[in-house]
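Try this one yourself first.
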């Protein structure tokens, strides 16, 4: 009858752990903190001014909840942590432990400018007046300037507002006479079809078959076309190079727009990149690299930066020793010598248009590169980045500061997110980032039937 009453009238049940108090690690209780003092992740109980707590000294920690009422898929589950410290904290559920942010320290430098439903938007600059909208999608489009940088936490930006649709397709072909080693990704703007030709040459430095998978994705991440270039027939580490293989790929019935073209080096049991793409021809004048690239030959690359950015170069072998010449809004000469082998070299550049001359055999990242100036285009309205950004968008995030530096952070789940250990126990994991200790005062789980 008691449980039925709770379910019928949506009365929340609170399971609380007073961290640092007697019994907080008592596994016989309905709610307890796993004792991990011997593992060096948790201090003994401490008391200051009649206030009990423990310090989190390592990760992860685990909180165990044995609910007495049934959990349905619709049950609302709120986890609430009271703590003090400057470390970022992540929380996760048994048993997959998919970590999500519980506290983000960098938000101290941002201003909360919009909260709608469970989504919050923060800005590094709160000098603007914002127009109110009914949806997050409309708010972003109406208030965040084009080409702004955005960091996303547990939020998927609607492709409709992310993708730049103000582009013009020109019926032209682009040839790229460059050799790429390993897997590479490109952004291409296509009309109604893909007409692609590739050259492939295996290095045969390692045992195993070497194939390339040609994959085309729309901006929702849906695979719309795939095919394969087979191995050259040599699967031993002979280092013998055969003449390049050539293959043409065609796919039609497409909508005009931006797509991701991935050339994936399938390596079977071979863990090394043992094949190259030696030539690309495609039916568009708009094609850019995406992510890390490894061009092997000398050449010129072009790129536009919509904000101050950092290019990174990684010299992986002596063939990568070279002088890089960057010309454009500002000029930079970058010397890669033997002291840089096995290390990353960073170059800061302001917003602007650039070209770079390379001698090849070097990893490059930090921009979308084109191999002809006419191939440059802006595929996205916003720059989604993991680096420092002007905007942060996060879902399911609540963190409020109290007196004396204490912080209350909350994360909400539904019963459908829960997998019980031994069909009876909810386990929350807590992980801190960095070496600083975190004072833990209390942990609560509130179950609300719906």
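Now uncover the answer:
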């Amino acid at each position: 009858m008691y449980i039925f009453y709770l379910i019928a009238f949506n009365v929340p049940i609170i399971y609380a752990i007073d961290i640092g108090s007697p019994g907080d690690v008592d596994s016989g209780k309905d709610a307890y903190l796993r004792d991990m003092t011997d593992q060096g992740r948790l201090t003994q109980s401490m008391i200051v001014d009649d206030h009990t707590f423990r310090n989190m000294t390592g990760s992860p920690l685990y909180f165990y909840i044995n609910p007495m009422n049934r959990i349905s898929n619709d049950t609302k589950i709120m986890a609430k942590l009271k703590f003090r410290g400057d470390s970022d904290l992540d929380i996760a559920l048994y048993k997959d432990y998919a970590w999500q942010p519980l506290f983000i320290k960098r938000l101290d430098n941002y201003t909360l400018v919009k909260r709608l439903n469970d989504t919050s938007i923060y800005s590094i600059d709160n000098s603007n007046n914002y127009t109110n909208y009914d949806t997050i999608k409309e708010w972003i489009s109406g208030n965040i300037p084009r080409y702004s940088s955005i960091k996303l936490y547990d939020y998927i930006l609607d492709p409709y507002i992310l993708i730049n649709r103000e582009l013009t397709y020109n019926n032209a072909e682009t040839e790229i006479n460059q050799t790429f080693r390993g897997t590479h990704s490109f952004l291409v703007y296509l009309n109604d079809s893909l007409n692609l030709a590739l050259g492939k040459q295996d290095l045969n430095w390692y045992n195993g078959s070497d194939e390339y998978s040609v994959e085309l994705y729309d901006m929702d991440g849906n695979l719309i076309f795939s095919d394969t270039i087979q191995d050259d027939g040599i699967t031993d580490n002979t280092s013998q190079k055969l003449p390049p293989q050539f293959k043409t790929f065609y796919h039609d019935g497409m909508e005009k727009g931006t797509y991701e073209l991935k050339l994936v080096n399938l390596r079977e049991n071979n863990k090394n990149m043992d094949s190259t793409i030696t030539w690309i021809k495609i039916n568009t004048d708009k094609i850019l690299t995406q992510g890390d690239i490894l061009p092997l030959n000398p050449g010129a690359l072009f790129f536009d930066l919509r904000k101050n950015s950092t290019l990174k170069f990684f010299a992986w072998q002596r063939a990568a020793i070279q002088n890089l010449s960057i010309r454009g809004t500002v000029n930079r000469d970058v010397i890669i010598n033997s002291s840089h082998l096995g290390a990353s070299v960073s170059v800061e550049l302001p917003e602007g248009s650039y070209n770079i001359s390379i001698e090849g055999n070097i990893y490059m990242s930090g921009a979308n590169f084109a191999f002809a100036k006419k191939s440059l285009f802006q595929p996205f309205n916003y720059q989604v980045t993991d680096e420092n950004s002007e905007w942060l968008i996060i879902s399911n995030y609540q963190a409020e500061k109290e007196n004396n530096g204490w912080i209350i952070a909350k994360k909400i789940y539904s019963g459908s997110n829960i997998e019980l250990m031994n069909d009876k126990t909810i386990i929350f994991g807590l992980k801190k980032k960095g070496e600083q200790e975190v004072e833990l005062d209390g942990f609560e789980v509130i179950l609300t039937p719906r």
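Discussion: The helical segments are 2-8, 136-143, 159-162. The radius of gyration is 27 Å.
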